[in-house]
Design goal:
Helix content: 55-70%
Number of helices: 6
CATH class of the domain at 32-68 and 99-201: Mainly Alpha
Largest sheet: none
Distance between the termini: 34 Å
Shape: elongated
Low-confidence stretches: 1-27, 160-164
GO molecular function, one term: cytokine activity
CATH topology of the domain at 32-68 and 99-201: Growth Hormone, Chain: A
Family: Belongs to the IL-6 superfamily.
Mean pLDDT: 81
Protein name: MGF factor
Keywords: Disulfide bond, Glycoprotein, Growth factor, Secreted, Signal
Oligomer: single chain
Pfam families: GCSF
Amino acid sequence: MCCLTRVLSLLLATLLWAPWRVLHGAPLAELSGDQDFQLFLDKNLEFTRKIKGDVAALQRVVCDTFQLCKEEELLLVRQHLGIEQAPLEQCHSRSFQAEACFSQIRDGLRAYHSSLAAVLELLPRHAALVETLQLDAANLSSNIQQQMEDLGLATVTYPTEDQSPLPTFSSHFHHQVGGFFILANFQRFLETAYRALRHLARL
């Protein structure tokens, strides 16, 4: 009985820490063998990986240029600026629904497309890379919107009142820190989106 209890406890812990394996109610089971859907997932997994690489390159530029490299050293400034992470909780909920996850990825990409304007102002010498990143974010968002329409998935629009507009930076240092956290948040957002797309590709 003791061993059984231990096994059940370990199983529960595994489920809680591996949300990608417990997507109850996912409505895409019937699409798991659809070649067009699989092609969409494969292409956009690669696209997301490419965007992640470009964000990482800009993070290195911010680190090298402004010596802003570690989040833990800037948390107090972050609280002052009020820069928040775009939500993606629907992509790792145990009651996962494709419509909700895709909608949050789409909306988050649009939000970061706008936020990158602050990074563009901060790094004019790297305008080409920032503008490419903005274009890629817009294209990935459009890809997801088009795929949702093709699959007949309901478009879900989440309230935006909790998503603060870009702050007005009171100093150049605050602008630098703001750019740092926009990129850090975007990178985390992309990692979560990538894991969600990868899970769907494996269904």
